């Protein structure tokens, strides 16, 4: 049991020669690489000081899980930091980015338990993976129960370690303190968004669209874009005007980003999106797209939507019929237009934002890649 | 969405006239009262600034849940603070205590989901309570699934709010930083202890006792006594010798405390313990008591133990037979002796510890009440 009072702080290896080049142009791939290095070093440190021998195997599960993902939240966080004049070669900001990624792992692992999802990023979800390991010894039912319990705990570990990594990032306590308002908001908002998502049939049809928008705002716009940007910016000592600009850019962009994701979930090419084109249709999430389709549907289309959407047995034929109906209601075009309007609004806000030029260029690039038809 | 950078800090109402009296003697009931007041004020503030209308009903669920409990962790935290010379009238320490209680709520809510427990503190567990609310509308199976998902989220909210309350407690960033090592250790240890608890049948019989001790050490000794004491002491700027004394007192006492709890779970009087005398027997947790009984049992007793202990259908007659066997193996006496030895070791360490006198008296009182035969 540790009783000393200092903690090891592994240095992130940032090639000094690259630092000056990055001040002019942000290389998003290098940011990802540095965030991954910070994550790996933190996991090594945890494995090296594990309080119990049961932890190292769980650490390997977390490592495997976080190896996937686009690192969007760390990217926005680093952009916010650079936007406010932060040094892109400062190791601390990559550790903060890694902390956000670990928080995201927590959120996804718990979401997958709640949604009983079997796959994520082309691999078994954490609760399935853990269940599979004991299935032969204990039978399916016991293994499933164990997998869920263990995944809840693995998620909890990711959450507390995210906090640990944030506080050991090397950012000064004053700056950390200045970013807490945005961190606090982010964490509560994602919980609210997820709660709205799991609460079934609590709203009447007229409230459904409102609810779908609230989920997008909490779970994607605030959580994925605005808050990470604001956290990064606040850590670099941003003024109020920049913090507000993060919201002016982040809110419409985050909405556009989720609307694109919803469209890809229904119409995307599996070889490009990396997930089955049936998954989202079988899950039956009440997205803005589908809620709009329902509202515009003829009685016959509405009945077919109700029967097919969210049907866990849905096959390719039913999926094609479902896509056809969603198209026919005009919902696809409406959502494409919503994306365009929001992306343009975000880019307009970005033009006026008091940010450094490298950050402006990277944020424009992220707005483009996050909302285009094929990603 | 908040974009400002200051947070409201509700003052805890501590009667100034009581402050000097408390410096001489700690009134444990007053500490509890102040911790509860800090919790209530934090919940009021959260309800007042809720990011979504779905949150206030969840806040009421949390309020109801935290209204029970003995506040052991806050008590040890305040004792650690006073032991290191902290002012018992400082509102900050009660907020830190409240943060530990909120963390405890998180741990219990998730534990109850994992264990599928229906009752806690004489009331339905959070996942049952939330399921019951939608049962009529959605049927039992959907309601149960919803209750579990919502309880995972309510637990997550308690965890992030615990952190929020800790950071808004009013303790200086430097002192908070000095206590983080113990906070980090506490949070990871409870996860490890709970993981060992849910991992079924992974160890051979010879490892069972070792595993039961590891669960006690992580889940009770460190989590309930040593770490809260160290967190409080570190927040008041304790020296290394005092931080070590917290462990010398806390580890044996925490073990004694859990061993007493295990005995009460089997032999306790329900009208005194406040829980059914069948609950622990039906749950079948592999406690030190039962593991010892298994090791000492004759083949006939062993078979009966295997059949009865952890049997969800166990009735009063079977329970009496189970108690009789555990007694006959001598395990009850062995555990009573273990408790005595550990309590005495804790009291011995306390005598030698470099703590203030009011803290010494209160810690002696807590050691006594937490380990005596009837509580």
UniProtKB/TrEMBL annotation, chains A, B:
Family, per entry: Belongs to the FPP/GGPP synthase family.
Transcription among keywords: no
Alphabetical list of CDD domains matching this protein: Trans_IPPS_HT
Protein name (record): Geranylgeranyl diphosphate synthase type I
Name of the top EC class for this enzyme: transferase
Any one biological process term the GO annotation gives: isoprenoid biosynthetic process
PROSITE patterns referenced in this protein's UniProt entry, alphabetically: POLYPRENYL_SYNTHASE_1, POLYPRENYL_SYNTHASE_2
EC id: 2.5.1.1, 2.5.1.10, 2.5.1.29
Taxonomic lineage of the native organism: Bacteria, Bacillati, Actinomycetota, Actinomycetes, Actinopolysporales
Record key words, sorted: Magnesium, Metal-binding, Transferase
A matching Pfam family: polyprenyl_synt
SUPFAM superfamilies: Terpenoid synthases (SSF48576)
Gene3D superfamilies registered for this protein in UniProt: Farnesyl Diphosphate Synthase (1.10.600.10)
An MF annotation (GO) of this entry: metal ion binding
Record organism: Actinopolyspora biskrensis
Cofactor(s) the protein needs: Mg(2+)
Stretch list, region Disordered: 356-375
Keyword field contains Transferase: yes
């Amino acid at each position: 049991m540790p009783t000393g009072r200092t903690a090891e702080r592994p240095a992130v290896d940032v090639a000094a020669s690259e630092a000056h080049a990055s001040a002019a142009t942000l290389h998003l791939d290098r940011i990802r690489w540095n965030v991954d290095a910070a994550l790996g070093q933190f996991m090594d440190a945890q494995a090296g000081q594990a309080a119990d021998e049961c932890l190292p195997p769980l650490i390997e599960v977390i490592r495997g899980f976080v190896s996937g993902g686009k690192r969007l939240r760390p990217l926005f966080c680093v952009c916010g930091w650079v936007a406010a004049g932060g040094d892109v070669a400062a190791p601390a900001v990559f550790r903060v980015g890694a902390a956000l990624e670990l928080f995201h792992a927590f959120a996804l692992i718990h979401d997958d338990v709640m949604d009983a999802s079997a796959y994520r990023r082309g691999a078994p979800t954490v609760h399935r993976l853990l269940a599979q390991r004991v299935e032969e010894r204990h039978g399916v039912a016991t293994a499933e129960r164990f997998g869920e319990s263990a995944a809840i705990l693995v998620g909890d570990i990711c959450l507390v370690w995210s906090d640990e990594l944030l506080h050991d990032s090397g950012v000064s306590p004053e700056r950390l303190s200045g970013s807490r308002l945005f961190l606090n908001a982010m964490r509560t908002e994602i919980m609210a968004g997820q709660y709205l998502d799991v609460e079934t049939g609590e709203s009447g049809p007229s409230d459904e669209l409102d609810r779908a928008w609230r989920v997008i705002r909490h779970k994607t716009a605030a959580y994925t874009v605005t808050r990470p940007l604001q956290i990064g910016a606040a850590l670099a000592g941003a003024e109020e005007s920049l913090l507000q600009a993060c919201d002016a850019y982040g809110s419409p962009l985050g909405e556009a980003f989720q609307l694109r994701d919803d469209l890809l979930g229904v119409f995307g090419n599996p070889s490009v999106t990396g997930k089955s084109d049936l998954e989202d249709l079988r899950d039956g999430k009440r997205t803005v797209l589908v809620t709009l389709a329902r509202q515009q549907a003829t009685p016959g289309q509405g009945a077919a939507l109700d029967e097919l959407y969210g049907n866990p047995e849905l096959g390719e034929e039913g999926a094609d019929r479902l896509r056809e109906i969603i198209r026919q209601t005009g919902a696809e075009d409406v959502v494409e237009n919503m994306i365009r309007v929001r992306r343009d609004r975000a880019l307009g806000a970005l033009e006026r934002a008091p940010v450094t030029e490298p950050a402006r260029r990277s944020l424009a690039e992220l707005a483009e890649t996050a909302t285009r038809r094929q990603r």
